[in-house]
Design goal:
The structure holds two protein chains of two kinds. Chain A is α+β, with helices and mostly antiparallel strands. Chain A is about 40% helix and about 15% strand. By secondary structure, chain B is α/β, with parallel strands linked by helices. Chain B has three domains: about 1-50, no CATH class; about 50-225, Rossmann fold (3-Layer(aba) Sandwich), CATH 3.40.50; about 230-375, Cytochrome-c3 Hydrogenase, Chain A, domain 2, CATH 4.10.480.10. In chain B, about 40% of the residues lie in helices and about 10% in strands. Chain B has 18 helices and eleven strands. The chains are: A alpha+beta, B alpha/beta.
């Protein structure tokens, strides 16, 4: 049987640099490896620093999910120092988290993922009158006239005919795996442009509470901003109105644009149910309604589903040294016993590169092949992210999530098993976005009610001064970032950081093999993916993008015998 | 302002027939058919959007995120009407070799005519293996793209100074763009990230006027980096009155007083935050209650805790005799000596107000002079 090795490097429309190599047999992918190729050493840089400063350093791990590392960081310091935060601070952090998810997910779908489903050039052939009637039939969104779509089409046409294609140059336009009719493609292109211009609005919520976005400000013990209805430079009614107006806009955009688009597009792709990959799903849970120390109060439930068995949800203990461990058998790090798994509190980050000298065509997967470690839960690889959260919530019988999922699957006439696919991952992210907009409305009401009850406190000062800290402490902070379960583990000694380790969502999903040769989530999901045209591997992009990758990675594949094949570069 | 694609092609010895072949190939690639060829040819002969190559090196992508937050121009206008964003791996449709081909094509066809925007630092440690893109080191990717660029914009503090990965002990030996590219202008647009309208303002300045904007001695556009945040801060009045927040959410915080004592770096940070504002003027860090981190300044992660007030020797303890060492320059930034004397003794409020009465202006137009002062051992 003819096998062929294809290379996509870099995979674009991701945060960071991703490289995929795939061995294809009979137009189907048969094996994969995944490798991160960027290392920045932030955990090393943190040693000896003030734990109260850590959030600003680790926030710079990612400027896309700009809220999440900062949140996990202040939570790990607060866990170590036993700091409870005021109710307002908890609500404001939750509002910022939900706003982050809405922004990140919407941006991801339109700017990073849509071009895997929507053929821009096909939109030029659309009849705008038909696009208009399709739009009106699926949504109340007011921008739906034939003239509007005609105008968008003309703009795109002029752009294309300028001969300068900019970001649309060299796309896989006309590829047989694009399944939308021209009219729906035109709808997708119109909303791509709308989303590009809308996304800057929702993050104004971050600017109100954190001063700016990307990289808003945080503080250990609460939130930096004060509430005073009778002054300025603080949260007053004008600021609250701004937040409320952005929440309302977000809800309208998601209800009337994102969700109808996703359902319309999914309808044309509902037979493409490959890309499921791993069968294990993990969520740490988030959105505490009382305290982060009370998982029962989380709106996003915690748990693990194994082997797609929705009848049982396993619990997680982030502090248990035997549950979450990181392995470096295939990563570029020094460790005495390369096969041993280490809990993050005992974790080490000592780079030791033994890959090929650049420029290179391929990595050697028999040695280390990634800057990404391989995190495992009780030795098992896990998928994290929107699909994992939806699966865990569904299995736990969460009413709101179950209703969202069941309603949309009914509309698509698909069974719940359809979730375990590339399409399911993308659908789950959209449904979660819709849920977050509802949560935003609820959280805003909570904030107003609490202020109305006379509570304006936003900061707990008791442990601000390091003189009030124990000489040694350790803590874990976590959150559900847009891309999945995120954990930060800290050890504090004499007021300084002694050890700091992060296990990020994309480390779970993009993980290389472990000592037992178990694939990570990206690797597993690529296997068995059919390719209509291996020289234009659109389906690989679609699956990898369905995870919303957030670090630089590289992925290699082997033939079934584990033998390296000659690299065949893809051609147009 | 620029030659058209056709003029450039002709000047490189490509004849009319070859040029039309390029147009036909472009039309075919898009499935547009033969009737689109004359339109493409006409567009390439008459119009020209400035080609831009945007590289993401060792970074966190916050700068790209900020870039698309731009309110004026709107991101869609910028990308579809003002520039030709021929390579930006975060947004472009093409992947892998096809993306690289698009970049190589622009580098070749528009040699010395495209703008290069660089986000991220370049790690030199271990022969560059800490950041490889498509198997190449980030250094070689940068050098290759910079060779034919008309100008290079180092966008964000990673690119201007190494930012967080460049903080001590700088384990990957991250260096900024200007330490690699030395043979052409490198405009610095620092910040972590920079304000959206600052980067798009810098780019559109070049498109509109055909010249690089005037730069500060540090190589940053004067229009955005000439003044300290402190000089235009909306809490400045409280600083001058000596009304300070002492801890988060205290009475002063609830009244929006000055954050100097909370560690604010506004007095040593040159940026447009307090004027242009963030997210279309919604706010900026100090307005929202957190001290400025000083993210547009070199080594901002290595200047002590973010919550320690600026060192006693700045601006509090500059002895009078030392002010004579500060150059007085034209059109520059004033530091009220009241502040200088103010924080020194602890009785800040009174001292500041009193000192203000006999204030002698100190003029500083370069942060390095502040650093110089800080480095002087004048703590005694």
């Amino acid at each position: 049987m003819a096998t062929k090795r294809i290379v996509i490097g870099p995979v674009t429309r991701v945060e960071g640099h991703l490289r995929v190599e795939a061995v294809v047999e009979d137009n189907k992918i048969i094996d994969a490896i995944s490798a991160g190729t960027v290392f920045r050493g932030i955990e090393i840089i943190l040693k000896g620093r003030d734990p109260r400063d850590a959030w600003a350093f680790v926030q710079r791990i990612c400027g896309v999910c700009t809220h999440t590392h900062a949140l996990a960081s202040i939570r790990c310091v607060e866990d170590a120092l036993k700091i409870e935060i005021p109710k307002n601070a908890n609500i404001i952090r939750n509002i910022m988290a939900a706003a982050q998810d809405v922004h990140d997910h919407t941006n991801h779908f339109y700017l990073l993922h849509a071009l895997d489903w929507v053929d821009v050039i096909s939109a030029l052939k659309a009849d705008p009158v038909q696009t208009s009637s399709i739009a009106a039939s699926i949504s109340d969104w007011p921008l739906n006239s034939a003239n509007y779509f005609k105008d968008i089409q003309t703009k795109v046409k002029n752009f294309v005919e300028s001969g300068q294609l900019g970001i649309f140059a060299n796309g896989y336009w006309g590829h047989p795996a694009y399944r939308l009719p021209p009219e729906v493609n035109l709808l997708g292109v119109a909303h791509y442009i709308e989303a590009l211009n809308w996304q800057k609005e929702i993050v104004k919520i971050h600017a109100v509470f954190g001063g700016k976005n990307p990289h808003p400000n945080y503080v250990v013990g609460g939130v930096p901003v004060s509430i005073n209805l009778n002054d300025y430079n603080v949260i007053n009614m004008e600021r609250l109105n701004l937040v409320k107006s952005k929440i309302d806009e977000a809800k309208t955009f998601v209800d009337q644009v994102l969700i109808p688009d996703i359902l319309a597009i999914a309808g044309f792709y509902k037979n493409d149910l490959w890309g499921g990959g791993l069968s294990n799903y993990m969520s740490y849970g988030d959105f505490p309604m009382t305290s982060i120390n009370e998982p029962d109060s989380f709106l996003i439930p915690r748990g693990i589903v194994l082997d797609r068995d929705l009848t049982q949800v396993h619990d997680i203990d982030l502090q248990d040294p035997k549950q979450i461990q990181e392995f470096v058998s295939h990563a570029w790090y020094r460790q005495d016993d390369k096969e041993a798994g280490l809990h993050p509190w005992e974790g080490k980050t000592e780079p030791q590169y033994d890959g090929p000298k650049p420029p290179y065509d391929k990595l050697d997967e028999t040695k280390g092949y990634s800057w990404s470690k391989a995190p495992r839960w009780q030795g098992k690889p896990m998928e994290v992210g929107p699909l994992a959260r939806i699966v865990v919530a569904y299995a736990k019988g969460n009413k709101e999530i179950k209703e969202l999922v069941d309603t949309s699957l009914r509309k698509l006439n698909l069974p719940v098993e359809a979730l375990f696919s590339t399409l399911g991952r993308t659908l789950a992210r959209a449904l979660e976005t819709q849920y977050r907009t509802k949560v935003l409305v609820r959280l805003y009401d909570d904030l107003i009610a609490n202020i109305k009850a006379g509570d304006t406190s936003t900061f707990n000062k008791e442990k601000w001064d390091p003189e009030n800290w124990p000489s040694e402490a350790q803590g874990v902070g976590f959150c559900e970032a847009p891309r999945g379960a995120l954990g930060h583990w800290i050890k504090i000694k004499d007021g300084k950081i002694d050890n700091y380790q992060t296990v990020v969502p994309t480390t779970w999903n993009a993980s290389p093999r472990d000592a037992n040769q178990q694939h990570g989530a990206y690797e597993a999901s690529m296997i068995d993916t059919p390719l209509a045209n291996p020289e234009q591997p659109l389906e690989v992009l679609r699956t990898i993008h369905s995870f919303d990758p957030c670090i630089a990675c590289a992925t290699h594949l082997l033939d079934p015998q584990g033998k390296e094949l000659a690299v065949v570069k893809t051609k147009k | 302002m620029q030659e058209s694609y056709y003029q450039r092609a002709i000047s490189k010895g490509i004849n009319r027939r070859d040029f039309l072949k390029i147009c036909t190939a472009t039309a075919a690639m898009l499935g547009l058919g033969a009737n689109a060829v004359p339109k493409i040819a006409n567009a390439l002969e008459t119009n020209q959007r400035m080609p831009v190559i945007y590289l993401n090196l060792q970074e966190c992508t916050c700068c790209t995120e900020s870039f698309i937050r731009t309110g004026h121009p709107l991101a869609s206008d910028l990308i579809l009407n003002l520039i030709s964003l021929d390579y930006i791996d975060v947004l472009q449709a093409a992947a892998g070799d096809h993306a690289e081909e698009a970049k190589m094509k622009t580098m070749k066809d528009f040699h010395n005519n495209y703008l290069l925007v660089v986000e991220g630092s370049v790690p030199l440690g271990a022969d560059g293996v800490y950041c490889t893109i498509g198997g190449k080191t980030s250094r070689s990717v940068l050098e290759e793209a910079a060779a034919g660029a008309v100008a290079v914009i180092a966008y964000g503090t990673c690119a201007t100074d190494g930012c967080v990965q460049g903080a001590a002990p700088n384990p990957t030996e991250a260096v900024p763009v200007h330490e690699i590219i030395k043979d052409k202008p490198v405009i610095k647009v620092p910040g972590c990230p920079p304000i959206a309208e600052v980067i798009t303002g810098t780019i559109v300045h070049y498109l509109t006027f055909g010249t690089l904007p005037e730069l500060t001695p540090q190589g940053r556009p004067k229009a955005f980096y000439q003044h300290r945040i402190h000089d235009t801060c909306n809490r400045r009045g409280f600083f001058d009155m000596g009304l300070f927040v002492e801890e988060f959410d205290d009475e002063g915080a609830k009244k929006g007083w000055c954050l100097f004592k909370m560690g604010c770096r506004g007095p040593s940070t040159f940026n447009a935050c307090a004027i242009t504002g963030w997210n279309e003027g919604t706010s900026y860090p100090i307005k929202s209650g957190h001290p400025c981190l000083g993210c547009s300044e070199d080594k901002f992660f290595d200047k002590g805790s973010f919550y320690s007030a600026l060192p006693g020797n700045f601006p509090a303890r500059i002895p009078n005799e030392d002010t004579s060492n500060i150059n007085l320059r034209k059109g520059v930034i004033g530091v009220a000596a009241g502040a200088v004397a103010g924080a020194a003794g602890g009785a800040v409020a009174t001292a500041a107000v009193l000192a203000n009465k006999k204030s002698k202006k100190i003029y500083i137009d370069d942060i390095s002079e502040i650093d110089e002062l800080k480095n002087k051992d004048i703590s005694g």
